[in-house]
Amino acid sequence: IKDVVFERNYRQGISIISAENLLIENTVFKDTAGTAPMAGVDFEPNHAEECLVNCVLRNCVSENNQGPGYLLYLTNLTRESQPVSIRFENCRSTGKGRALSCTTRNNNPGSVQGSIEFENCTFKSTDQTPVAFLDKPADVCPIRLKNCTIIGPEKDDAALPVIQFIARAGVVGQIGGVTFKDCVVKAADLHPVMAFYDASYISAVENVTGTLRVEQGDRKVEYELTPALFQKWMPASEAGNITPYETDISRLKPLDASAKTDSGPRRKVRQRGLSQYLLYATQGEKVSVEFSYHQLAKYTGDKIPVKVTTPSGKAIPVDSIPFKQSATCAFKAPETGVYRITCDPGANFVTVDQSSHQVCLTSEGAPIRLMAATGDFYFWVPAGVEKWAVGVFGGGPGERVSARLVDPSGKQVWSEQNIAEPKLYTATGQQQAAGKLWRLVLNRPTEGAFEDHYVLLVGIPSVLALTPGEILVPAEALQK
To answer: Number of structural domains, the chain?
Structure first.
């Protein structure tokens, strides 16, 4: 594509979904509007099998678009996808929105590999942070900016940085992996050069290197990008330096194999969105779990599929749950081990009403989402863990929850009322010879709404049980 003007297009100037050996040269993308994202150029594959290989933009301009000038949204590409190779040369992006926004995947099955480069480019925004990197892992798919100039924002808002790293909810590790070589930042004094926004509450910025010449008013400073500087500019979240615990589902076993499951009604814990459960069964046993699919407010719904995955990763077909009804997920265990059961009620909610086997709540690389849930929740701290944290927070504006934490001896060690923003209890230097069972107690807040709230387990297995007899723990804990 050469010497073309893309003007006043609806939704996108151009969408690049899958391409190999693509050259866009001497081309203008301007005045894009309509529906989001309204970008000048949007690299956005729909499936992991698609590719972005040897894609080059040279001498291009993106200006006055309602969305980002250059948008790279690569979340549908995974570590199994073909590595990307994207390069911008002598390109410019100006307007009110972000000039450059780059997002990759940062949870299972991992981010796409490859490289992204910008050389001799200018990124300018009057109203927003000009350059943003979202979720990009610190150790995968390096991004390199060489001889680039970043200008703005002009808006009188000290909360707007020039360059921002963002970890969204569900990020499972450190983000970063960006090199700035001989780049220039031009902004007013009130704007931070770099900032870190951590919606995951467990991340940190790492592996960002290079040099920046910062021009703010009459002040010009050369910065070498070092960990010490980032500790000042972008300190890690409270739990950001905790080593994530790799929960190997296949290694989980009941802490108390002799504990019997009450065949009567369970304490009903409401969950919205993706709801995940773990259940241990012996080969040949008949398993039955009764779910109810409830309506919340006036949200509509249809039947929701239930997915059962065996310890070896095979799917077991089971009945769906009709809207506003109950259904039993029943199967005969083909092998011994932990079965994963998942369903997604969307904006409505689901409960487990009865079960023939012990059931735990879990969430892979993300907080466990609950809805107006109260009572005791148990979790396991394995032997040898040096630092871990448990966090609790509300689900949205005005939503709150109260919580307290009880250690294995029965002593209350932490308590918070009316939690909206994340509150964490962090344990350090407590390596123990044997794993221990802890108890988290959730209660209604005394003020604010009580609806969505989350429990975040960092550095330990992301597994919650409603009773001590239901907890699943790493098999090595049972061998000690």
So the answer is: 3
User: CA dist 265 to 334, 353, 466, 480, Å?
Assistant: 26, 6, 13, 34
Which residue from 109, 58, 422 is spatially nearest to 240, judged by alpha carbons? 422
Residues 194 and 333 in one domain: no
The pTM of the full predicted model, rounded to 2 decimals, is 0.72
Mark whether 446 and 338 lie in a shared domain: no
How confident is the model over 217-263, as pLDDT tens digits? 889 999 999 999 998 999 887 777 788 788 888 889 999 887 777 66
Question: HSE of 37 in the Cβ direction (CA atoms, 13 Å)?
Answer: 21
Q: In this structure, what token pair is assigned to residue 197?
A: 């926004």
Structure-token pair, residue 374:
């109260």
298 and 176 together in one domain: no
Are residues 108 and 66 both part of a single domain? yes
Sorted by sequence, the CB contacts under 8 Å of residue 220 that are 6+ apart come out as 213, 214
Query: Could you count the other beta carbons within 10 Å of the beta carbon of residue 278?
Result: 22
Residue after which a domain boundary falls, among 187, 216, 233: 233
> Which tokens go with 127?
């109203």
At residue 263, the pLDDT reads 65
3-state secondary structure of 249: helix
Please tell me whether residues 167 and 114 are part of one structural domain: yes
